Amino acid sequence: MQLLLNSVLSIVILCTLSCVQSKKIADEQHCEVCIKTISTFADTLSDEDKASAEKIEKTFKTYCSNVKVDSKEHRLCYYIGALATSATYSIGDLSKPLSWGIPADKICRERLAKTNPQICDLKYEKQIDVNAVDLNKLKVKDLKKILTDWGEAADFIEKSEFIKRINEVKDKYIKSTTDKNKKDL
């Protein structure tokens, strides 16, 4: 009986620990675009500008006008209302807390996400390390993305053709680890 109780208790503890770990990973990715963008923007502000919500709003609109179109950051600016084409206007939910010194993660997760949940749905696409991954195990969609990111033609039909083309041109786009080690010496 005691052995059974210890086994059940061990399983419960392991499950709890795995849930906590997976939640921590999910929390790091939750609102990642918003947190990175707001943090980067806040770093560009002077101490004088950080104290004024009006200056923060004006500066954020300027910041957003210089962000690359069709990027995740541009989409965030659209959601917040910092672009002329934005359908909503919730810059106040950004500027006021930022002027009070509230950290970017709290602004994104607790303020902006309440007004527009799509803000926290924005995520960066993970880059695939071609040298560290087995290309045969990747999906065709991922193989095609690798080639299009490099600016190479990706109009093949068979998976083997994608893999063959990646192997042909990868030296042109990826520095090998031996080149990096030579530079370090």
Automatic annotation (TrEMBL):
Coiled-coil features, chain-numbered ranges: none
Domain of life of the source: Eukaryota
Domain ARMET C-terminal: 133-173
One record GO biological process: neuron projection development
UniProt subcellular location: Secreted
Keyword terms of this UniProt record: Disulfide bond, Secreted, Signal
GO cellular component, one term: endoplasmic reticulum
ARMET N-terminal domain boundaries: 31-128
InterPro entries according to UniProt: ARMET-like, ARMET_C, ARMET_N, SAP_dom_sf
Predominant localisation class: secreted
Signal peptide extent: 1-22
Transmembrane portions of the chain: none
PANTHER family membership: ARMET-LIKE PROTEIN, MESENCEPHALIC ASTROCYTE-DERIVED NEUROTROPHIC FACTOR HOMOLOG
Family named by the database record: Belongs to the ARMET family.
Descriptive protein name: Mesencephalic astrocyte-derived neurotrophic factor homolog
Originating species: Rotaria socialis
